[in-house]
Structure formats: C-alpha cells, structure tokens
C-alpha cells in the first residue's frame, strides 16, 4: 500500500491549518493534491497567470515531504519546479533558497508613506527594475501583476512595488525596488507598509511575500514591518531517474 494518497485542496487547507502559503498559491484549487498517510505532509500544484502548471509545493516534515514529492512529481510536466522546506533531502538542480513571509496586522507608520500612490507608468517601472533589480520576479506586462505602486520625487520614479495577489483574502507583493540614488531614506519599508494598509483595507486578512534567503537587509525590514511568519524554503527541479 502506498504511504500517500490523492486528496482535495480543502483537505490540504485543513491539514495545514489554512496556511497562508497554501491559501495564496495561484490556482492551487484547480489541480491535483496529495497527502502522506498520516497527513503530516501535503503536496499540491500551483499555476501561472496563464493557466500552466508552475510548481509542485510540498509542505511538512522534511523526510515525509521528500518521500511524498518523490512519489508524485513524475505525474507532472518535467520542467515543473518544486517548492519544499529548506533542508528537505531531495536532489535538486538549479536550487534557489528563499523565505516566505506573512503578516496578519498593519505595520508601524513609515516615513514616506504619504508619497506612495498607485502607478500606471509602466515604462518608468521597467526602467527602474532594469537598473536596480533585473532578476525580479514581476515586470510590467506580466499577467500576474494586478497593479503597481510607486514613489515619485521631482517627476522621477524612485521606488516601485507590484501587487501580484492571486487569491481572495490574501495580498501578495513582489518586485519591491528602490533607486540606488534614493536608498537609506526609508522608501522600501514605506512603499511596502503603504501596500499592506491598502490590502487590509480591502478586507485581506494576510499579506505575503517572498524574499531571497541571502537578502539580510530585506529580512530585517520585514521583521520591522510585522511579518511574523518566516518560513525557509528551497525551489528547484527534481532530478529524474535516467
């Protein structure tokens, strides 16, 4: 008998106590999901904004998560990346370590929040990201971006942020960037705090984001803004036999 079985997303949500990562994963309810025999590990699929399978997310104790992901990932396209707790004993190629952060309450006031507004100047956003964050996960024109926020001074865009929320009740931010000439002025925490307040005002009960594990400055900033959930994860491709 297998030590895992297919299950539904409502069951995954129940087993994970409605984890914000599970709740906010784009398209999680439209694809397959699985659980370990004792229910301590779960796996489910995420989708991109164009409806293609993007990821296999595995959560739970590391050994059980590795066993479950190894058992089911062969049922998915070969190029689907897995997301698992850091240290899960899987042989991954192209691994990337990052932290999932979540906040359930409004942040402390930040110095430049009054300068933030929704921004429809995608050319300026693209120029800023190209300059300071060319490896960002969201760009103007990306269908997963709902809207952009920005801070302008003297007609120049000095900071930006993408709203990439994908599920009801969960706000998600991406592509937070500050011009090199404007760093040290609190623009990063200010644009993030402003977006958090907008999400909570829109009846979202949690705000989430991802940050690379080696971004110590970002991790400290999110601590100060009240991101109390801090989960260490790794994304990569599972090596297939043969």
From TrEMBL:
Pfam families: Acetyltransf_1 (PF00583). Residues 82-242 form the N-acetyltransferase domain. It comes from the Bacteria. One of its GO terms (molecular function) is acyltransferase activity, transferring groups other than amino-acyl groups. This is N-acetyltransferase domain-containing protein.
């Amino acid at each position: 008998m297998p030590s895992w079985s297919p299950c539904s997303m409502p069951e995954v949500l129940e087993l994970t106590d409605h984890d914000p990562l599970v709740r906010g994963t784009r398209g999680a309810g439209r694809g397959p999901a699985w659980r370990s025999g004792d229910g301590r590990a779960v796996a489910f699929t995420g989708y991109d904004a164009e409806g293609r399978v993007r990821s296999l997310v595995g959560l739970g104790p590391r050994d059980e998560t590795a066993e479950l992901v190894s058992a089911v990932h062969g049922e998915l396209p070969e190029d689907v990346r897995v997301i698992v707790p850091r240290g899960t004993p899987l042989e991954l190629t192209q691994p990337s370590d990052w932290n999932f952060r979540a906040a359930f309450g409004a942040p402390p006031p930040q110095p430049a929040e009054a300068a933030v507004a929704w921004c429809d100047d995608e050319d300026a956003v693209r120029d800023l990201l190209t300059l300071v964050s060319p490896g960002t996960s969201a760009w103007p024109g990306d269908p997963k971006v709902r809207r952009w926020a920005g801070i302008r001074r003297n007609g120049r865009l000095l900071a930006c942020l993408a709203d990439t929320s994908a599920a009801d009740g969960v706000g998600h931010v991406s592509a937070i960037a500050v011009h090199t000439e404007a760093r040290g002025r609190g623009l990063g925490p200010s644009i993030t705090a402003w977006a958090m307040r907008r999400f909570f005002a829109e009846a979202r009960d949690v705000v989430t984001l991802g940050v690379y594990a080696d971004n110590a400055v970002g991790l400290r900033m999110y601590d100060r803004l009240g991101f109390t959930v801090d989960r260490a994860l790794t994304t990569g491709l599972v090596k297939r036999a043969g």
